[in-house]
Amino acid sequence: MAHDYVIIGAGPAGLQLAASLERAGADYVVLERGSVPGAFFTRFPRHRTLISTNKVHTGYKDPELRLRMDWNSLLSDDPELLFTRYSRRYFPAADDMVRYLADFAERTGVRVRYGTSVERVSRDADGFTVTGAAGETWRARRVVAATGVPLANVPSIPGIELAERYDTFDTDPESFTDQRVLVIGRGNSAFETADSLMETAAVIHLVGSGSLRLAWQSHYVGHLRAVNNNFLDSYQLKSQNALLDGRVLEIRRDGDGFRVPVAFERADEVVKDLRYDRVIVATGFRFDASVFDATCTPETVIDGRFPALTPVGESVNVPGLYFAGTLTQGRDFKKSTTGFVHGFRYSVRALYRELRRRHHGEPWPVAELGPETGAAVDRIIERVNRSSALWQQFGVLGDLLLLAPDGTLRHAEEVPVGHVAQAVRAGDFGEVAAYAVVTLEYGADHDRVDPFDVSAGRSARRDAPGLDGRYLHPVVRWYRAGEDVAEHHLAENLENEWDSEDVHRGPLRAFLAARRGPAAPVAP
Questions:
Q1: pLDDT digits (tens, 9 = 90+) for 243-263
Q2: Which of 65, 142, 333, 438 is most buried per CB count within 10 Å?
Q3: Predicted confidence (pLDDT) per residue in 452-468, tens digit
Q4: Which residues, 6+ apart, have CB-to-CB distance to 217 below 8 Å?
Q5: What is the residue-wise DSSP string for 134-190?
Q6: Is 482 left (phi over 0), alpha (psi -120 to 50) or beta?
């Protein structure tokens, strides 16, 4: 069977894209090796509590604003398909996500073939051939991989095969009673594991290289979350547990346990030989590229953990091979929310719009604003105050304000920032004399300052008009001939309401008006 699209994987990203294609009457099929959508969540996280927040009561009536606090819902016009209807818990159970995704698949009518394991993907001049485990094949003009990161990311340490792995170890805390336990890794899976053992294990050490990163300071939600950091209290308050800043040199058997030499970074690489009863490796996950044969093997980044992609999610070296979901985080690794549902649901929508534009002749949605600067100010203010996409995908997705050669203005929503210059040069948005990219961003040094330290005061960086803080705020950058010629920061606001005439609207109006002078159009 031949299709325009074969989507591999019926997790959140695969379902999000399939739902959009289904609504458009597109020619596609989804291949899922599991028996249910979102099969990943039937196993992970191992301790069965999500760290993606589920804020049911926000005080907002606007569905778009509510999505800012809803990190689990996929995008849909169906008001019943909101994750907040499936759980009232702030940190919900993973089983609730499984129920939600099953209902999403059923109600959107997406075409999924369950129990279909993809064994090989190959490419020729006419497109792709996808081969299943039973020998069946599908032809496709394009393939979208939305498989997530199914492989454990196992570090190269001598003796690492002796350790238990996060994806397979026995999670029953009673099996660790009165034991000394080493957890290799310092991400959320490692801390989640350590937290579950605090009532039963005698001693727990977590080990990893470099400085520990806390999500509340870095604003990257994949760094250590507060819900998992009880362990830090037990360490700093001298309750037998410890966080080791160092490198594991090897793991070797020692009777019924293990000996693990650790080179301590804070002590000039002094090596201490430590004994443990159990060793668990919890160092994250990685991309499985094994199904792609030599005709379409994608390049990878981050030590092979993710595919190397263009800003819209296409492989940099395999035309027609696209990726969706957590696989797309390689471009902004540990800097934004692309690896999580509340981020990639918008990146998937951007991918869908680009696929429709590129392959089906549908232009990217653009709104006509007319010639008045005031209309542009109104649109920008409305968007930064309301948009969930710009809020979640800070610095990754941006709205465009497009100035035509005749002086009229148009507005396009949620374009991948890294794709804008190429799209404008190619004439994807028509003739453009100049344009602005509107994003929400944190201050440049936001991750290096303790936000609870009042002595730090306001940001010292005042080189851009309107910037007076490190917290999330709107940024407007003006481009001519592809060059960033000016930028304007709207002052941060406690309630994230950037609508003051004196502080927000007036300065923005002046900034835009000063830059709308005549200029040669950028060549399509």
A1: 999 999 999 999 999 999 999
A2: 438
A3: 777 765 544 444 444 44
A4: 447, 450, 451
A5: TS-EEEEEEEEE-----EE-----TTGGGSEETTTS---GGGGTT-EEEEE--SHHH
A6: left
